[in-house]
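Model it.
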Amino acid sequence: MNLLRRARIFNHLLQPRSRDHVRGQISLLASHSPTRHFLTVGGGEAEPTQDNFDSSSPIDGLLRPHTKGSYRCFSTQSTKSSKENLKKKKKKSGAPLDESAMASSAVVDPDLDDDQIRVRLLQEDEKNKSLDVGPNGRPLFTSTTSLSELTYKDSCSYFKCSIEDLNAVLPEGLPDGMLKEFDDSLRTALLVRKSFLALRDNFRRIVDPPCSSGKGPKVRKQIVLDGPRSCGKSIALALLVHWARNEGWLVFYVPKGRSWTHGGYFYKNPQTGLWDTPVQAEDILKDFLKFNESLLRQLPCQIYDPIPLGEGAGVGWLKGADSMAMPEGSTLYDLVIAGVARTHASVGVVVRLRKELSMVKDVPLLIAIDQYNSWFTFSEYQEPTTVRSCRPIHSRELATVNAFRSMMHDDMMIGAFSHSTAVGKLRKELPDVPVDARVDFPRYTLDEAAAVAHYYVRQRLIRREVFTEEKWKKIYYLSNGNGAEMRWLAPLIW
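Modeled.
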């Protein structure tokens, strides 16, 4: 759009118009603007912050009802602190008036943005326990404080947890979907789903078989969680790891499997014919120590064969040595520390660690890999074949991935596909994976969606006075039970 056309649109904005007409004109102007500048009605330029600009939809930040600074471009007058002026501003902007917010205007500073006001109101709501009601009058939050004590009666309710406890038990990192849920709802609580309880009980029955010999669900030692994007696979995997560690298990948890195939140095090891990635190997060992150090100190090494050395990260080969031996009486902690301390041994220690874990019998072992589908496609690395061409290196050719990818063993192992990594659709039968290991993780059921909708009302993502069963069902069917889309659509209920 040329400058003259933009100037005409801006002149029309200065004339009295309806709110919908002004929105449409701003949308047209912003969609053709080559820069990230927003024009105010007073003729000035608003600061191009993340709140009033979105690269995918320039006007999206203006129409989002619960976004900081969402109406910044519609007003150039200073905010006044009286209750009367607050009502006038709400009426002028055309947004529905929240009576509960108006009732609390005496204690909430109107100079605060929408998120800060919502935090204040939620703090007041904590004093009113009558708001913690879910569908059909059921409690919205379960009174159970441990994942191991949850039963199917607790399904479709919310489990309260603390971010400190999650970070302590899952120091490798929390899933992005879990953090997004916490940020949007302003509470660290997660929905108890039957699909997670079935997953937990499956591994529980392996370690502690039931006394009765009656028919029950088939027990699987190796599971691959597949399913649509944002259906809760990563959150279920993280909760499973949390439960297993609280039960005293030794858990090898990889929250971002894609990081094993991207970034850092890579060298071809002539002894193994595989590609070494020493930077990733060192990070793998450090993450494994974060929670498991006390257990690893108690587990002795079972294999004392020399560990082959490779190239170090950016330092080349070690002169005068091509292997490293572990002394008699070493523990798994000593093995991991040796790989962290010597960059030339880091990849060899990761490979040896996988063999050692298979021989652990004193405590239950669980290997949990998120973004598992990244290990069945090409990595970021390339091998030069001619002067002008390169060959992409498959993930299975990386020594670390090659050691941990296979499920053709007797150890308990679970992997979760992540469609946010843009790997693409894989064939149903995967190499080194049992045929019956792949399980589809479901979207929200109608009962789960009802609990989610009531929870979002409780957390003021949905305004209570406009909430109806018909409206939340529309959101459920529109999103097809997708959790992330339901959370995005929730504030749009008017």
